[in-house]
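URGENT: need a sanity check before tomorrow's submission.

F., can you look over the Sugar ABC transporter permease record below? I want to be sure the sequence and structure line up before it goes out.
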Amino acid sequence: MTVAVDTETAPPRQQRPQGRRTGPLARLRRGSRKHWYAYVMIAPVVIVLGVLVAYPLARGFYLTLTDATSLNSARTIGVNHIDPTYEFIGLHNYADILWGPTAYERFWSHFLWTVGWTVACVALHYCIGLGLALLLNQKLRGRVVYRMLLILPWAVPAFVTVFSWRIMLADGGLINTLLGHLRLPQPAWLEDTAWQRVAAILVNTWCGVPFMMVSLLGGLQSIDANLYEAAEMDGASAWQRFRHVTLPGLRPVSATVVLLGVIWTFNQFAIIFLLFGGTSAPDAQILVTWAYRLGFGQQPRDFAQSATYGVLLLSILVVFTTFYRRWLNRSEQSTL
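Structure tokens as predicted:
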């Protein structure tokens, strides 16, 4: 049995052009010819990132595989140039830092303090910032003035803020003087290890709350007011409206600011360094300031160990960010 096909009405069969390649390299070549102006526009950014980020990162990773110090690195003394004499030692630096005989004193104790410092600071940033954002989101007289005053700690340069707190936390500073007038104990904020850590959290909280407040305030203002009206009409209490309307509405903003807060606090070099210096308060040093101390605050300067700390810091943050994003995606899918 034969079926007649009307060749005049049948759609033409699409045929792949002969001799045209469809591989990834061919598509990239065609795209570069078609959108050459886009590649020209992003080329300066790629070059700058390569020079400022990619090369130092690659160079730092290479140093972690050597025993480079200030004694065996290339240096110039007067008119004499001394070539480097450090050697390739593989993963010895990583093994020594993580599992060496003094691994706890050199790495794990600072790692635990860095994690505790990060959790405490970010939790205080978020809770205080959310409380202030809820307050400023109300119709208050002088709300603009309050907002400007609360943003002021964020606008002041970090070194000015930290030095001001350092003066106030000194033995004869303002804080201990007030505590003395109130017949309260006067802690050694800058000498005792426990109080050094409390002081570091206090100063970093003062510096970080304004950013969290502004971000969460923007999130609060983006929540539809009709949701609150509907919840109130259904008899929801203030706590129920906060739990079931405010917090879910702030979830996208909260996820972003918490992630940024963790990354910034984990690598917060300025607060610790300016408050205690690079060589004092060894038990209050976080990982990033301890890496600086190894590379620049002692003699001989251990460039390899310092670079290894930097790579470990980057690895920790990459792993945390990956699991954090996956957890957020699962939470969002479970609520749908």
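My own read: Residues 103-301 form a domain with the MetI-like fold fold (CATH 1.10.3720.10). The chain is about 70% helix and 0% strand. If you see anything odd, call me.
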